[in-house]
Structure formats: structure tokens, C-alpha cells
């Protein structure tokens, strides 16, 4: 029998690399090539697809806040005053993410009218002197 010679694989050129699999951060990209020779002509152990990591600019991270606290007590015991409530920043914005909205809110409150009797006026006048 004459000696058998293996016919080398005939492969197409590599395709262009695909786009990165993500729009920001770490992802993967691939490229392929095709087998041009018929499989029955011999074994072909060449790889037909390659993959590699790709890195795009970091993904934006938006600000994250806790829930609002309960409203505080009114800051006066009579008359007009105010109450406040707060919330904390859990995640600071990064890489162009949405900025944090307000973390303190203030609202008016009125407990009750302050008493002003005739005795009160005399005491104030004495203190002013």
C-alpha cells in the first residue's frame, strides 16, 4: 500500500472580533473561522472559535439612599415650629451615576397657641427693663 499522507486542514481567515458582550465594565468577545476542507480528508484539530476578555469604561453607579426616618418632634412646645426627617446615603454615585437627592426634609408644625395672659405681659416688661 502506498503511504498515506494527511491533507492539512484548510481554514478560512479569522473573522473580526465581535463587539464586547457588555456596554460597560468587563465582558467577552469572540471571533470564528470556518473549516474549508472536507472532514473526510483528515482530522482537523485546529480551533474554530476564540474568546477573550474585553474591558469597557466602568458602569455608572447611581446613588442609593435608606428610607426616610420618622418625623422628629416639633422643635417648639407652643406656636409655630418645624419638624425634620432624614435618610442616609447607602451607595455614593460613581462613574457618572445619578447624584443623590436631598437627605434632609423640613416641614412646618404648630403645636398649640402659646398662652399670653396679663401676668405674662408684666413679666416681659420687667425683664426688658
From TrEMBL:
Highest rank taxon of the organism: Eukaryota
GO annotation, cellular component aspect: extracellular matrix
Alphabetical keyword list: Disulfide bond, Glycoprotein, Signal
Membrane listed as a keyword: no
PROSITE patterns tied to this protein: TSP1
GO biological process: cell adhesion
Pfam families: TSP1_spondin (PF19028), TSP_1 (PF00090)
Positions of the Spondin-like TSP1 domain: 63-114
Protein name: SPON1 protein
